[in-house]
Amino acid sequence: MPDVSSEQVDLLLYGPDKPLIDAGFPDRFGLHKAEQLADLERLAPDIAARIRGVAVTGLVPASGAVLARFPKLEIVSSFGVGYDHVDAGYAREHGIVVTNTPDVLTEEVADVALGLLIATLREFIAADRHVRTGAWQSQNFPLSTGSLRDRSVGIVGMGRIGQAIGRRLEASKVPVVYHSRHPAAGVGYRHYPNLIEMAKAVDTLVVIIPGGAATAKLINAEVLAALGPRGVVVNVARGSVIDEPALITALQTGTIQAAGLDVFADEPNVPEELRALPNVVLLPHIGSASVVTRNAMDQLVVDNLTAWFDGQPPLTPIAETPVKDR
Ligand code: 8YV
């Protein structure tokens, strides 16, 4: 049980500076900051010894070695729904609760997935260029070979965001199936336990599965070959889920048709070969990046910490570190 006395609670804000998180804590919290891994080295040992809560404000590594710097750590409140950058196994073994920011970004990320899919199929970026360059004055933009109208989509991952993407596709009258390790409760779409089988059965993959070791390079050359020459891949999950060199080769050789990518293997570095391809739409990891949604995520980071240090259960603990009674 944490100490809920009036004594100051020392928190570390680790990651990019977030004004709303900064401003979110009442006076009884003492805030310390480290923007990057290297900044942790400069944190005075007496402060590190007092830290009881860490807010991970972006995709900075929160490995076991990082968490081990804080012997009094009780809770890690991580920004974002994905937490593959936080060592949940270490946290669990050491009785540290980890929270993330689900739900508040579900519809936003699903919007981006659908927008990216349509932009890729209907070639919005090239069409915009056609207007801006004045090319339209001499010729019409060519008909797009891609369309949602003649496609069926396999969603890879059927969590909250996968289901929100499914709802949008249904509303657009697009057939949906999905792949995940286990069938998702209450989901009526056909479930494929085998990804290759699903890739053979559809022509479009929308990837929204957690990152981390269990899903690394899940979308590999074999899956792309199974998807075939009409294949389109949209990734709004983590770059690690796709074998990026295999995807580049598949796009270069016509093994698949096109891709829409919001995430990459080594952000913000995007391979030159990928940037040179005409059949890709590339976004700088903006799935949840609107002011309204990011504010809600910031607030949830704060609320999880304040709830905990008020002696309440955290609002959104991850499955690996459940909190039963408090
Ligand atoms: C953020 C995300 O872009 O929620 C996630 O898992 O990837 C995004 O919402 C990410 O946390 C970077 O700050």
From TrEMBL:
GO molecular function, one term: glyoxylate reductase (NADPH) activity
Entry-linked InterPro entries: D-isomer_2-hydroxyacid_DH, D-isomer_2_OHA_DH_cat_dom, D-isomer_DH_CS1, D-isomer_DH_NAD-bd, NAD(P)-bd_dom_sf
GO cellular component, one term: cytosol
Domain D-isomer specific 2-hydroxyacid dehydrogenase catalytic span(s) in chain numbering: 48-317
Similarity field: Belongs to the D-isomer specific 2-hydroxyacid dehydrogenase family.
Organism: Rhodopseudomonas palustris (strain BisB18)
Name of the protein in question: D-isomer specific 2-hydroxyacid dehydrogenase, NAD-binding
Record-linked PROSITE patterns: D_2_HYDROXYACID_DH_1 (PS00065)
Boundaries of every D-isomer specific 2-hydroxyacid dehydrogenase NAD-binding domain copy: 114-287
Keywords: NAD, NADP, Oxidoreductase
